[in-house]
## 1
Amino acid sequence: DGGITQSPKYLFRKEGQNVTLSCEQNLNHDAMYWYRQDPGQGLRLIYYSQIVNDFQKGDIAEGYSVSREKKESFPLTVTSAQKNPTAFYLCASSSTSVGTQYFGPGTRLTVL
Amino acid sequence: DQQVKQNSPSLSVQEGRISILNCDYTNSMFDYFLWYKKYPAEGPTFLISISSIKDKNEDGRFTVFLNKSAKHLSLHIVPSQPGDSAVYFCAASGNRQTGANNLFFGTGTRLTVIP
């Protein structure tokens, strides 16, 4: 089955710790994206990558970092510099940089 | 500043009737619009899209209408079914010719279809 997987579904971390969220796709999509969703709000773009070894900041990149070493994988690290990291994180991919984006199931991160 | 707005946070409709979800945008550079459906604790599911060169796109029970002069689009679901109950997000992207595909999302409308 082709799709986008995110793990884990629920994640807890202590304040001051870095944590990495996984995103994998087997759709052979070139572009991948990270969004966060907060209660009552729409999705906001954190980072995106149009090709391997290249990525750009989105609207709310501060306190986050990414890597794109493989086409299938686009992990997101939430660093201790992120002031309000508790949120629902969504990964997406699209076949091209202008294609329709398809989303994974999401990871809910809670900072204790 | 919210460039894509969904001013109705919720909508209730009787099963079998039409559901109309509305979306407004402010950026005239947006040229591609999408609707996503989302259940709690799940990722959004793509429903239907429309390019700015069209004013209507239909896919089964779902139709999206675009009014560029008013910077307004709407999603019609006919007939509405209880399984349609979810949060619906409107999204827009611009500058597709330059390769940028950043999506700007509205805040969502929670649709409840009453059996």
Note: Chain B has a mean pLDDT of 92.
## 2
Amino acid sequence: AQSVTQLDSQVPVFEEAPVELRCNYSSSVSVYLFWYVQYPNQGLQLLLKYLSGSTLVKGINGFEAEFNKSQTSFHLRKPSVHISDTAEYFCAGRPYNTDKLIFGTGTRLQVFP
Amino acid sequence: GAGVSQSPSNKVTEKGKDVELRCDPISGHTALYWYRQRLGQGLEFLIYFQGNSAPDKSGLPSDRFSAERTGESVSTLTIQRTQQEDSAVYLCASSLASPWGTDTQYFGPGTRLTVL
């Protein structure tokens, strides 16, 4: 069965430091990959997505992610975080043969001043 | 433009009661999804509507859960005889549903359901 794993439930980091949120997917077929962000008391918002082509994907708010097929990973990165980046981040995969998103359990990014 | 809206934003109910949750998708979006987000967990797929096709109900956890959609507009998720384990945030999403499956799902703010 397809699955998406986010290895870290919480990531604390100081403002202006770099951050990486890890995501691995398990699939016997190719997959589209997404990162969503959920700010407190708000709905999920798409950060970026990988469909095909360049393995380095740039999204909103300075985030980027790299698709690594050999490691089945899609880690999210930002070189310098802000307090406003404090939120829950969800990695999701969508196998080619389905219409459903399969979500990871989420990573809470906490940025401290 | 208007995004996906859901109502109510919060619902507290007693065990055994029925509840209805509403979702208004983005106008023109043919696909509509319901997810459940339990505390500390990821989103679980519940059901998917695409145009006039039969809905994909494979994620519904029990026969107490059902959903309807009127054409390509409003959807209602109904939970009968609620149980405490039904407490969660219920999220609705809609998309254009491109034939290549590359469409982005846009999420509503969710309905927080608490079953006492």
Note: The mean pLDDT of chain A is 90.
